[in-house]
Amino acid sequence: MLAKGCHAVDADQLRAARTALRDSAPLVHCLTNTVVQTLTANVLLAVGAAPAMVDAPEEAGEFAAVASAVLVNVGTVHARTAEAMRIAARAAGEVGTPWVLDPVAVGGLRFRTDLAGELVALRPTVVRGNASEVLALAGAGSGGRGVDSTATADDALAAAEELATRTGGVVAVSGEVDVVTDGTRTVRIGGGSVLLTRTTGAGCALGALVAAYVAATGDALGGAVAAHAHVALAAEIAADLADGPGTFAAQWLDALDALDGDALGEADVRTS
Amino acid sequence: MLAKGCHAVDADQLRAARTALRDSAPLVHCLTNTVVQTLTANVLLAVGAAPAMVDAPEEAGEFAAVASAVLVNVGTVHARTAEAMRIAARAAGEVGTPWVLDPVAVGGLRFRTDLAGELVALRPTVVRGNASEVLALAGAGSGGRGVDSTATADDALAAAEELATRTGGVVAVSGEVDVVTDGTRTVRIGGGSVLLTRTTGAGCALGALVAAYVAATGDALGGAVAAHAHVALAAEIAADLADGPGTFAAQWLDALDALDGDALGEADVRTS
Amino acid sequence: MLAKGCHAVDADQLRAARTALRDSAPLVHCLTNTVVQTLTANVLLAVGAAPAMVDAPEEAGEFAAVASAVLVNVGTVHARTAEAMRIAARAAGEVGTPWVLDPVAVGGLRFRTDLAGELVALRPTVVRGNASEVLALAGAGSGGRGVDSTATADDALAAAEELATRTGGVVAVSGEVDVVTDGTRTVRIGGGSVLLTRTTGAGCALGALVAAYVAATGDALGGAVAAHAHVALAAEIAADLADGPGTFAAQWLDALDALDGDALGEADVRTS
After folding, report:
1. Residue C118 pLDDT more than 50?
2. Which of B172, B196, B198, B211 is nearest to B64 (CA)?
3. Angstrom distance (rounded) from CA B158 to CA C135
4. What residue ranges carry the coiled-coil annotation (chains A, B, C) (predicted)?
5. DSSP string, A42-109
């Protein structure tokens, strides 16, 4: 039990997480949607991790078993990649490799909603989505109309806590203020930029960064928080330098690269 | 019948179209090629629309029925995505949702040429391609060698008019001067930049923007013209700021975002 | 037999290769991984070549037979695209069209390693990979953990020479210094920038550029060397202008475009 005033994730942990990420250069096996593969790989390279996209059923299990972490994102899933995702999630679970589920647009479409239900039963280390997706995944809503969401992250807090308790892992809800919970402790991360929502794949790449940080730190809650803080702080720097959504993307990658542990320690992270 | 001097698409309509696009933020369901998905999504986000790429046969019909508009682009089509395209086009037609066909490289390759013939029979709201593709689709040519085209847009005008009459929709032919026709009225859009032809996916993203504008305005001809004018004007701004094709792409997204209705009203649009 | 002091690839050849590339604008048929398709297409467009990504089994042979060159990259291969690759490689071989094999992550994963063995038996004009991949393909190593490699290019020289002798073609090994060999002559290319390794798809796009230059020059060794030199020199220019990996990518495309034959003639190319 946490003492009053105790911080679930404090500045020292954030600083240490950044160092651990650079030192360990985790190999993140991404089974993700084809719209965001390039940005996801570039975000992982920018922060010092190593990306690999392998989504053939013939290879997904073999690769998940040797990767540092696995990302499963159902954004453009179809029959073949769904099978690869099931295999990779099972392989990760068997060897104790952390894996992240990003339930893109779950709730609104039956095929992926059924698949996401199967994947949740395999107990992802972290679920990362927007409020509509987390509400739908927890059985508390009907989902949004795609990757956007009209609910705030806090609207999904109860659903996130329930889902975290069910998986034994962590659930992260993205929004203007991000909410990350393990079912008991809740951390909120502020900052960021609206330009993240105007860059396709920024949220999906955040899911990959969560996988990388959890692998580097061995801490699902702390790793997920560090990833959200890293993305938010880099977005603020990039927004200052950008003239619009096109120039923002390049500046964001530069800022993700440059951001060090001291800077990450200054993130707007509040535990409750 | 149009009176002499009447403008099929005038400056007031262009200004109103830009406002309608921002206000309605149409959800564009893109079944498009994997080379251009990222740029297409970012172009839609830049102008204020919402992209969603869903190309599993299990989901394509369900999603097309709730989207504001659908784009079908056969650039990297194969058996599974061809099936998803047939399903999405039929679903859009059944509920009266506008949909755009982009017949990339049709004419030169039998599989996609047969598919495009099937799709044309489903009467796309707008067909958008280059001159070679439109000539091939109308049965008047053998197609180009891929996404490029040596014919001018006006070389394909008769074929475009015939095709528009057959589908009951609009046909847009991209070129140094773009030509858009509903079989009766013809609108030409000048301007733009040669750097658009050196950015992979610029033409494909234009197809998605046509879908967005047609959904926002409820006007196939006016929406298609507004999309072409928006792309052309933003390209001119970006070309002035860019040092080459790499820096152009980011500047183009910034300019697509910034361009407002008053600017769009100044586009080089001529009706005949 | 080469006389002492003879240069396998000299500055005049490099200058002529750049001119030939611009003049012939070769159509490069890319069967490549979905992470890097966009960058690959943009690199080909930047240098003056024409990209086309066609990876349906129904179309791959028909298109390979009319393309100027073919690229086969197994980065995200699965059953359908593997079949398209076999068909395209056979079609290219039958009509004498040059084709390049990029054995991404071969060695570590059985499915693609078996496929790469089949493709090598079809005698690619050029094999381009990192040291781990070339060692694995030659049967001399177990591969790396993905697209990265801890061995230097020269560590793989003996394997590359053996492989080149077996295929009757050229083998190019990327590293801090690149090594290109036809089994008899060896050329080393220096320069470049570490930022290339932090840009997803830079190596894969290099494979496409090798295909373009071999088509333009009709010279497997000289074309492969010119492609490596072009990439390295443009990277140096871009690294000077960039603030990080995000801004680097755009600057690199600009520099690939701007680099002319005189600049290419100044590349750090050494024959032994």
Report:
1. yes
2. B211
3. 58
4. none
5. HHHHHHT-EEEE---HHHHHHHHTTSSEEEEE-TT--HHHHHHHHHHHHHHHHHT--EEEE-TTBTTB
ipTM over 0.85: yes
Beta bridge partners of B170: B126
Amino acid letter at B7?
A: H
Domain-embedded: residue A21: yes
**What pLDDT score was predicted for residue A139?**
87
Main-chain phi, psi angles of A70, to 5 degrees: -130, 140
List, for residues B180-205, the tens digit of each pLDDT value: 999 999 999 999 999 999 999 999 99
Domain range for B42: 11-271
Taking Cα atoms as reference points, which of A23, A73, A75 lies closest to residue A213? A23
Residue B4 lies in a domain: no
pTM here is 0.96
* A186 within 8 A of A208, measured Cβ to Cβ: no
Which residues of B are known binding-site members for ATP?
128, 174
What one-character DSSP code corresponds to residue B167? H
Residues of chain A with pLDDT under 50: 1-5, 144-148
Burial label, C269 (beta-carbon count in 10 A; 0-12, 13-18, 19+): buried
Q: How many structural domains does chain B have?
A: 1
What number of other Cβ atoms are within 10 A of residue B150's Cβ?
10
The reply to whether C85 touches chain A by the CB within 8 Å rule is no
Q: Does B213 touch chain A (CB under 8 A)?
A: no
Residues shown for chain B: 272
Instruction: Give per-residue pLDDT as tens, A87-111.
Output: 999 999 999 999 999 999 999 899 9
The CATH number covering residue B61 comes to 3.40.1190.20
Measured CA to CA, the distance from residue B228 to residue B171 in angstroms comes to 12
Selected for mutation to probe chain A from C109, C112, C149 (highest A CB count within 10 Å) is: C109
Q: Is residue B263 part of a domain?
A: yes
Cβ-contact B20, B43 below 8 angstroms: no
Contacts of A41 (CB under 8 A, 6+ apart): A30, A51, A53, C35, C200, C201
Residue C2 lies in a domain: no
Q: Is A149 on the interface with C (CB under 8 A)?
A: no
Q: A152 by DSSP, 3-state: which?
A: coil
